[in-house]
Amino acid sequence: MNELFDICGIPAFLEPWISRFYTPLEIDLLTVLNDQSMTVDEIHHQLGAESIDRFLARAWRRGVVRRLDDGRIAPANFHVRFESWALFEGWHDLPEDIKDRLNRWELAYYTAKHRATVASLKAGQPRPTEDACPEYLLLEEVACLFERIERFYLWPCNCRAMVRGCTLPQLTCIRFSNARGIGWEISRDRALSVVKAANRQGLMQSAELAVDNQGRLDGALCNCCNDCCFPHQLARVLDAEKIWPLSRYLADLSPEPCNGCGRCVRRCPFDAISQAKKKKGLPPSTPVIQTTLCRGCGVCATGCHQKAIRMHKIRESLLEAYYS
């Protein structure tokens, strides 16, 4: 069993719960692979399992193994298995302390993976277009971006599925490729309607995009909350609140059309908007935006029925042409 933990990078505290993540035959498969790759025929010879093609296809979809370009099969890192398990399978049969440890383990991995990039961005270095760095998008920018995307796949939000820190909708992530064939392909119009509905419910739009050497886009459009989203958790850990996701706008509130309803105060995910308590017999006060806390996500502006809030651009993205 210790070999299995080393092969897949499984945290040691999961040993009593390993059967929640892998079937006995999947454990045998990973043990046979032993941190190397094999052909389907070699695996069949070693395991002798019936319906080996169906078994391996299921193991691939579940994040147990990965398929190499030459068709060989290799073990998948446990981070892949954990995401698939959290999205579609588990949680209900694990103790709360184990769930919390799993999420801390995943956040530590995510933070370590992006620490150098965040430090570079904080130092003012340009962002490489081949790296998928998150940045806030306004709704109109999402619509422009979607015109340049060929295919759309609807996924549950892996952050909210793992962290479970809020009750906001989970079926909100729009990915532009279909890893392991488990996303639902939807139309461009449907994808945009999902994003607009998420925004109405107070979720922020954040693009994680990369551009290959032929100018093609890949990545995802995330509809994020501040409670569960891993990029926002990383920002708190690394003191990178304006960098990760990248803040490109600031909200500006005009007192004249504002009626003091306070909707923007309630919608702001970062408590950047405040409003004095209403005094009896007097009209409500105009909310105040604290620019040092504003991330430019635009959720306040889309929720303002008086259209009293405008978003002013303070920074351009390297991907600006895709949003305009």
Secondary-structure map with pairings?
Elements: H1 2-8, H2 24-33, H3 40-47, H4 52-61, E1 65-67, E2 73-75, H5 78-88, H6 96-122, E3 133-136, H7 139-146, E4 152-155, H8 158-163, E5 173-175, E6 184-186, H9 188-200, E7 204-211, E8 217-224, H10 230-238, E9 249-253, H11 263-267, E10 273-274, E11 288-289, H12 299-302, E12 309-313, H13 320-323
Antiparallel strand pairs: 1-2, 3-7, 4-5, 4-6, 5-8, 7-8, 9-12, 10-11
Helix pairs in contact: 6-10, 7-9
Give a structural overview.
The protein is 38% helix and 15% strand. By secondary structure, the protein is an alpha+beta fold. The protein has 3 domains: 2-88, Winged helix-like DNA-binding domain superfamily/Winged helix DNA-binding domain (Arc Repressor Mutant, subunit A, Orthogonal Bundle), CATH 1.10.10; 96-238, no CATH class; 249-316, Alpha-Beta Plaits (2-Layer Sandwich), CATH 3.30.70.3270. Strands 3-7-8-5-4-6 form a 6-stranded antiparallel sheet, covered by helices on one side. A hairpin with a 5-residue loop joins strand 1 (65-67) and strand 2 (73-75). The protein is elongated and about 80 Å long. The mean pLDDT is 93.
Distance between the termini: 53 Å
Shape descriptor reads: elongated
Q: How do the helices and strands follow one another from N- to C-terminus?
A: HHHHEEHHEHEHEEHEEHEHEEHEH
Structural class: alpha+beta
Uncertain segments of ≥5 residues (pLDDT<50)? none
What radius of gyration results from the CA coordinates? 23 Å
Average pLDDT across residues?
93
- Name the strands of the widest sheet in spatial order: 3-7-8-5-4-6
Counting DSSP H or I runs of 4 or more residues, the number of helices is 13
Bin the helical content.
Answer: 25-40%
Beta-strand content bin = 15-25%
Number of beta strands:
12
Q: What characterizes the major β-sheet? A: 6 strands, antiparallel
**What number of domains?**
3
